[in-house]
Write a structure and sequence with these properties.
Layout lengths: L2 H21 L7 E3 L6 E3 H17 L5 E3 L12 E9 L1 H5 L6 E8 L2 E9 L4 E6 L3 E4 L17 E4 L13 H10 L2 E3 L4 H10 L4 E5 L3 H13 L3 E3 L12 E5 L4 H15 L5
Parallel strand pairs: 3-4, 9-10, 9-11
Antiparallel strand pairs: 1-2, 4-5, 5-6, 6-7, 7-8, 11-13, 12-13
Helix pairs in contact: 1-2, 4-7, 5-6
């Protein structure tokens, strides 16, 4: 593992700890929709990102930040860019449900090098570097599950905010996997969904209509924990493409095949 990845992880750790300390006892008062009444933002999303940006800019001057609330940073001369979700799972956070997280990752020209995901209200912490493994808050390495068949698998997914009007709303896929998989869950934080695949708590995760800040850190952990990450057709994963299958590897081809069956039946075409 190169020293720069260690240093970048240390910066991400410091930023995630600061945001976690800010948010752990926070209770939102100003809640509004971002163009869609289901896509919520609170004053704490904004405050968290402002704090993270300030620390990142102090520790890595000149490296831009792509954040959910504060907009996109243009590429730096080095190719580095931070990818930040100040609260992933804002709907849960706004309702007092503790399943939400802070996700911070750093990419180099599309390749995620290091990241941290913290779930302050749950006391969970996950971190990792490319080629250096992924671990939890105790330092124990993350390892994916060994479940070998989709029909035995516990899967997790999410749904887009425009699901009431968008025909590509994941409903058909959800119903299909409810029939063919062991069980399916929807928890409301894509970052934590990926982390829980990396931990072996879930066997697989699929979703579309995502943003890079939702999954940049978590998908790195899955690969570092021995899992597989691709697009929804089994092709190369692009953190900015908005779609993902993350699994323990053993069931990955099965997930791709089952999603292909839904695609053939419904006629949707991945973007």
């Amino acid at each position: 593992m190169s020293a720069d990845r260690v240093q970048l992880l240390e910066v991400a750790q410091a930023a995630a700890r600061a945001a976690s300390d800010l948010l752990v006892n926070a209770r939102p008062h100003a809640i509004r929709g971002k163009g869609n009444p289901r896509d919520l933002v609170t004053e704490w999303d904004v405050r968290s990102e402002e704090l993270i940006r300030k620390l990142l800019e102090e520790r890595t001057p000149g490296v831009p930040v792509l954040g959910e609330e504060g907009g996109q940073g243009e590429g730096s001369a080095s190719g580095l860019r931070w990818i930040v979700d100040p609260i992933d799972g804002t709907v849960n956070f706004a309702h007092g449900l503790p399943i939400w997280s802070v996700s911070i990752a750093v990419e180099d020209a599309g390749t995620v090098l290091a990241g941290v995901v913290s779930a302050p209200a749950l006391g969970w912490w996950f971190e990792g570097t490319r080629g250096g493994g992924a671990r939890d808050g105790t330092g124990a390495p993350l390892r994916v599950s060994t479940t070998a068949a989709v029909e035995q698998a516990l899967l997790v997914t999410g749904f887009p905010y425009d699901r009431a009007t968008n025909p590509e709303n994941n409903f058909a896929e959800w119903e299909h996997f409810q029939r063919v998989a062991g069980a399916c869950r929807r928890l409301g934080s894509a970052a934590l969904d990926c982390c829980m695949v990396a931990c072996g708590w879930f066997d697989g995760y699929w979703e579309r209509h995502l943003k890079a800040w939702d999954i940049a850190a978590g998908t790195l952990f899955v690969t570092e924990a021995g899992g597989t990450v691709t697009d929804t057709r089994g092709g190369p994963f692009d953190v900015h493409a908005g779609e993902v299958i993350a699994s323990n590897g053993a069931i990955h081809d099965g997930l791709v095949a089952e999603l292909g069956r839904v695609r053939s039946a419904s006629g949707w075409s991945p973007r």
